[in-house]
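User: Here's a chain of 337 residues. Predict its fold as tokens.
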Amino acid sequence: MPRSTETEIHHKHHRDASSESSEEGEPKNLSAETWDSMRAEKTASDKGTKVDFPNPESVEKGSTVPISVSVDGTPREIFMHVPKNYDAQKPAPVLVVFNEWGDKPGPGGTKAGAAGLEELTGLSKEADENGMFVLYMSGNPKKDISYNNGQYPFSKTDDVGYTAAVLDQLNKNYNVDLERITLTGYSQGASFAHRAAAELPEKYRPANLVDVSGWTTGKEKPVPPGMNFMSIQSERDSVAPIDGRWFGLHMDSEERTLQRYLRGNSINDKEKAVSIKEDSTEAVIERDWEAPTGAKIRSITLPKYKGHDWHGSPGSSAPVNATKELIDFIKGKRRGS
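Assistant: Prediction complete.
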């Protein structure tokens, strides 16, 4: 049976070369290169991501268990949910969920970080019904539980490498379907999901990306070919404005984000949507596109809603449920070519 092992991804690190005086009894006149090497030897064990999964034999199906992870020597609290109907003979899809920014309780009083994601989203119940693994990820605790989306206030660690390391260990311990990986997140976690989707190793290139109340930075690498994309945004959200934010913390508008995925899938005219649905109360507008690459793209906007939340979560009064929309969207979708 597979055993709990450790995955390490080492980062490059740089230091200014300098000459330093040595203590009495130590070698003198060491070169800058030697000093750099000595320092690196002292700190290399703390660099990168270390992952230690519990032995699969000890994990009950249908349960959510903590995973031991540290990034650059700092522990992170993450959780794994194993579907109750998991069959080791059949590859199971994987859903990776990134938390919102901040170390204070979230919507509805849910816990900050990964600890509150299961209650916030209700995704474990849906995962049981759909045979999916769920990884509830946690950001950098030294940076308000944020992720490195390339913007200055947030984490500076290699969070793409961290995500890949966790997926790598999951893949070693369980039979997972690498063509059915979904990334999703809420707020800053969704912003990071855009970066991760574009930068994860080809082996873990996601089939789907679902953005809930997030944004793009404009710095992301090109859209992976054939990836399905859905976003759910509140038009009156003051935290992540749907029209974008151009000063201070830059946020692309929803239309710029949408154009990124349309053009990345060879759709040059956003008006040529396959379908446009607007409910009778004008509270929900849904637009769908089908790309030449085979990718499906969906935009759900809520014209009257102010909330910056995981729509339909505890404390939310949104007219849609983000969890239901996510599950309906990704069901049956595989990674495109």
